[in-house]
Amino acid sequence: MLWGSKVVPRAIESGDFERLREFQNDLEIEVPRGGEPHRLRSRTEIASYFEPLNEIGSAFNFATAPKDNLETAIGHCGLFNLSNSSRTAELGITFGDRSCWGRGYGRDSVGVLVDYAFRIHNLRKITLWVHSDNERARRSYEAAGFEQEAIGKDHMWSSGGYADLVAMS
Question: Cβ(108)–Cβ(6) under 8 Å?
Answer without folding.
Answer: yes
